[in-house]
Amino acid sequence: MKTRGRINFTLSMLIIIIAAFILVNGVTIGNYQIKSLSKVVKLGLDLKGGVYVEEEIVDKNVSKDTIERTRDLIELRVNSLGVSEPIVAITGSNRIRVEIPGIYDPKAALEQIGKTGRLRFVGPNNDEIVTGKDVADATVGVNQQTNAPVVQLKLNAEGAKKFAEATQKYLGKQIAIYMDDELVSAPSVQDVIPNGEAIITGSKNVEEAKRLAGIIKSGALPVKLNPATIRAIGPALGAEAIPTSLKAAAIGILLVMLFMLVYYKIPGFIANLALTVYMMITALIFTLVLKATLTLPGIAGLLLSVGMAVDANVLIFERIKEELKLGKSLRTAIDAGFKRAFTSIFDSNITTLIAGFVLYFVGTGSVKGFALTLNIGVLASMFTAITVTRFLLKSFVNAGWITNSKFYGA
To answer: How confident is the model over 111-166, as pLDDT tens digits?
Structure first.
């Protein structure tokens, strides 16, 4: 049992240390790279700065499908700005929230988001051939002969009929594509297109083809929008808040770990390992599973849940101390300690979870972010306290390195 316990504990500790190192620093193995957490996590507007716009749908009795279509079209327009990690989400029953990091001109952003966007295909005689309502889809592809990026255009049945007549009429000539009064592209008709499926060549690179496809696909918004909230957030707040928040988090976590180590000794050391696992699990859930955006309230929620993760371990270790003082063996005291502490841990966390769920479903904006991070943190802390701490502590005791109960807080 000693050998198995020593192998289990040593391997577990090595895995935790290596995983923590990779998350903090990243690693490159051959052509495969695992990025560090700081390079993967997305920062919210309050940390990165940018434009916050909330558009209200003026039309009444708009269907859910129409609202989602509007959201998708706005997202295409925002993406055409070339910004990274914009957020376009439906808020409530008739609002669409747009967060554009890295852009600080609300007027320019608003024009791009809410413009009428009348898309037209115009012939050499200035006659309108098809409009945005005739476009079914526009995607980026590759010309099989030249390997150059192209825009694959697909028209609906009505548009296909009109386009077939126009391409026959203007074979060898240009058909101009306008968004409002802006000339987007002017490809030449090389063949008659009878089925409404065409390709537009001439894009210099994939990005240019993506932009053209996005503009063609976005077309006109199906509803009228009215800006309800417009706010520009400067990057200075994030530049000051990020290092300050990280410094506060590091000091707080180190003090907590030091206290656990000094007061609870071996169990405190085990709790610190479990706390490291908790932080890794929480980080992976946010970055890889939820792909969430980190905001200042989110950081506050995470730090609060760190404290709750330690609270669960304190409850367990206090029960173990009581069992040891009754004269029970280490293994018996640990089993009894976990069993007696479970009810208290469950009760204290379930009330926090209830409050967190209420905040998430009733609250808006930053309150939702705080509630989400708090709930995930609480669930992860319960998991690590009940399973990881238990496994590590039992493995350490089974290893037989230190058997004196004084080192276990008794």
So the answer is: 767 665 678 889 888 888 988 778 888 888 888 888 888 888 888 888 899 999 99
Q: At which of 206, 231, 256 does a domain end?
A: 231
Mark whether 142 and 270 lie in a shared domain.
no
Q: What pLDDT, on the 0 to 100 scale, is given for residue 387? A: 93
Check whether residue 349 and residue 320 sit in a common domain. Answer: yes
E strand or H helix that includes residue 362? helix 330-362
Tokens of 370: 């705080």
| CA dist., res. 384 & res. 391, Å (int) | 10
Whether residues 341 and 324 share a domain: the answer is yes
Query: How far apart are the C-alpha atoms of 95 and 98, rounded to whole Å?
Result: 10
H or E segment to which residue 395 belongs: helix 389-399
CATH number where 181 lies: 3.30.1360.200
Instruction: Tell me, yes or no, whether 297 and 327 share the same domain.
Output: yes
Which residues contact residue 397 at a Cβ distance below 8 angstroms, ignoring those fewer than 6 apart? 5, 330, 331, 334, 403
Contact 265, 257 (CB under 8 A): no
**Average pLDDT of 30-44?**
80
pLDDT in tens, 283-292: 888 888 877 7
Domain carrying residue 90: 44-116+224-231
In this structure, the answer to whether residues 241 and 325 fall within a common structural domain is yes
The answer on 324 and 257 residing in a single domain is yes
Mean predicted lDDT score pLDDT of the chain:
83
pLDDT in the model for residue 115: 61
80 in helix, strand or coil?
Answer: coil
Cβ-based neighbour number of residue 72 at 10 Å: 12
Beta strands in 37-180 (DSSP E): 42-43, 50-57, 87-91, 95-101, 119-122, 128-131, 135-142, 149-155, 176-179
